[in-house]
Hints:
This protein is an alpha+beta fold. It has helices spanning 2-12, 15-50, 66-69, 106-119, 141-147, 160-165, 194-201; strands spanning 73-76, 84-85, 95-101, 127-133, 154-155, 174-179, 182-185.
Amino acid sequence: MNDIYVRAELCLKFSNYKKYYKALIAFNFLFCVCLAHAGSCLGETAGVALSTDSIKPLKIGDSIPEELWHLPLQVVNHPEGKDTITLNDYRDSKLIVLEFWATYCHPCIRSIEKFDSIQQNYTANELMLLPVQVYDDVDRALPFIEKHEWNLSSVVGDTLMNKGYFARYLTGFGIVWIADGRLLAVPSIKSINATNVDRAVRRHPLHIINRKEQTIDHP
């Protein structure tokens, strides 16, 4: 930097270069201001995109918004070796089941294994079970899955679905059912069984008790 100022002073001794020096300084100043402003704007935009405050929690019966269908989700143990998926990859399934879990949540683990056994009776176009790890260390997911020999992919590091889109019903862990592009149900534990799953896949009326809706302070 000192070298630059020395050169500038030398240039000022020559009147023919004086006007060019001033123009260069002005240009550099404006460039820095614009660059800083652009960075600030990008940061604000990213903050909005990643904030749960900008997400309107869904109610049962609501359409799944396109931004959720196309939200990039980090995944482990994918059969094709993918690191990222979207819900849109499974949009053709008649019933998508999101099971929110953690490696230390024993009821969640039992529920996933129970649902996986139910899933064996259906094709991927009929029923798709997708575990979603929450409130846990991302690095623990894959070793746990391999140890238990699950043939399931799992989303990891989620905050936007659990704490955003489905926060009206999920207070931690739980299960979300999506069908026909809508939030079909957030069933209570007692309502999760093979009969109700089959009714959902076949589009028969459901006789289930959903989890209690939470009060959400959101416009």
